[in-house]
Amino acid sequence: MYKPRTIRACAALIWIIALVSANAQQRPGPGNVPVSNPGTATGVSSNVVTSKLLIYAKNGLGTTSTKTSGEFPSQLVASATVNNEFTVQWSRPKPGTEEKANLYVLTPNPLGRVGGKNVTMPAGATSVNIPFSMETLAPGNYVLMVVGENGRSDKVTINYTGKDNIGQVVSIPQTSPINQPVPTKSSVQVAGAQFVPAVGAPGEPGYQRAKLILNLRTVETTKISKLEVQVWSGPWTNPELLTNSKNAPLVILKGKGAIAGSLTIVKDKDNRITVTLRRTSQGDIDDQEAGPGQYSPGDWAHAFAQTTTASFRTSVDSKAISSLEQSPQKAWQSGTP
Fold first, then answer.
1. H or E stretch covering 288
2. Are strands 49-58 and 151-153 parallel, antiparallel or unpaired?
3. Which listed residue, 89, 131, 132, 281, has the most CB atoms within 10 A of its CB?
4. Domains and CATH numbers, the chain
5. Burial tier of 314 (Cβ tally within 10 Å: 0-12, 13-18, 19+)
6. pLDDT tens-digit map of 74-117
7. For the purposes of burial, counting CB atoms within 10 Å of the CB of 107, is it exposed (0-12), middle (13-18) or buried (19 or more)?
8. How far is CA 175 from CA 19, 101, 161, 289, 321, in A?
């Protein structure tokens, strides 16, 4: 016969064992630590297919109509011939929070970005229709893909005819090659330059923007009202979006000389002016950088880090006067600074 004290001790021991067991089930052990979702920004986001992209088409031709019912319905397909305007549908398996992404237009072999636009999946939605125009691209085969913070869509292939929606050939505006300065008749020239790279990062204590100190010379005294500098990167890749593909150069730094009204450049003398260069942002996109494309998260950092020799382009009153091929990351000087 067990004594009451023994029974109480056994009950207490059983209660402690049960409590420890319950806590062990609630807390992950060393082998049960939750793994971050590979489809999030902390993983290899853009290589994970998390959504679907399809093109609206009628009889194999891309269309702007998004009606998939009625007497003449459109169909959602993975490939189609297109004129300059059509609509695609971006969809996801289930509703979620608002998701911001980019719709990219890519050359197929090798994959390379040539255009795109910003897109947003509204909160609670499972699909969104995206109108698109190919007006500034040459006829040929292209690939479409949506890339967001949580992953990417599958791909749509198109054969662009180079025509508008009534069958007329679309004219492509001509632009000067981005690696060549525009011809100029300005008498002002750059006799020398000195570059001081940025210190630190924006928002951090002690951050200092990069500077370019220019020595301007002229054979006749003249006044200028605007001095601008753009620093173009070299071709670069974004491993988070497209592996083994080169993107077009983009402007990584830009700035204007501090000129109030006008500045006199005296003939046959050194005229020094300092231009503070700031990092470019998504709102600084240039039509030569990627056609109608847009920046993606991380593009600036990838382009800057991979550029050992950038193109420092100086213009006076919108006329190009100099293009120096130098490092955007290290101090240097050229000519007579």
1. helix 287-290
2. parallel
3. 132
4. 45-160 (2.60.40.1930), 188-335 (2.60.40)
5. buried
6. 999 999 999 999 999 999 999 999 988 888 888 887 777 777 88
7. middle
8. 74, 28, 21, 12, 18
